[in-house]
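Researcher: Checking consistency across runs. Here is Glutathione S-transferase again:
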Amino acid sequence: MSFTHPDGLTLYGDLFSQPVRAIHAFLTLNKVPFTFKHVDLMGGENKSDWYLENIHPQGKMPAIIDKSSKGLYTLFESHAILRYVTHKYPSLVPEHWYPTDPVARARVDQYLDWHHSNMRQGCTYFLVYKYLVPSIMRKINGKDYKESDFEAYQRENNRKLMHYALKQIETFWLKPNSTSPKLSLIQSPPHTKFDSPYSHLTIADLSSACEIAQVWLLDPEEMDLERKYPLTYKWVTSVVGIKEVAEVQEEFLRKNKMKTPGTIKRQKEEQAKL
């Protein structure tokens, strides 16, 4: 594939990736003009020469290319991209997504740093070892796949990490706002004006909720949010029920031919109540 970059901000990735979905939803929600270039993750396109040479030297996603006064430049790491967009497009992106208040901003950054080795690692690698590895191995071997002891250990270890992180979301991150009708990971600064259904949210909420929703959509019985983590359930449904966020989740399911009857519909219904 030859590399030709379109004008304006371009997002490279596959909606199979949670961070790609979070950024896609964020750009769409805030009406930031962008072009989406699909990179086939399952087909290994992210490891092709054109991608490694022009987009990301490690073959990861998401990544963006944008223009500055000095020409084109590439940026990767999802949280860096989310921060960048809030700085680059202040007339489009409301301040609540990445507050200018130093304490509120530090708390957003605190969550974003915590997220990588807790919520993301637990959720992602639980799904990798429960679904992705068996799927790939069945295609390679063309026969029934038997999980190895190492794979079983990794799956269980990350399942435990995922539930540990969910408990932290429930009892630490959300608890200070538990009496508020507008739940968020970061407590809003005093006198915040809630002028939209999601003006209490930050980029930390979007990144985290999309991560949790991926497991919830694919394995709702394992996560069991409504029963085990009621605050988290209320918060996740409010975030993932936002129209632009729900649409990108639905597109992910459609492209991968997955069905989760009623789950996204319920998220939208919860958001409509706010």
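Researcher: Does this match what you'd expect to see?
Model: One thing to look at in this run: Residues 260-264 have pLDDT under 50 and may be disordered.
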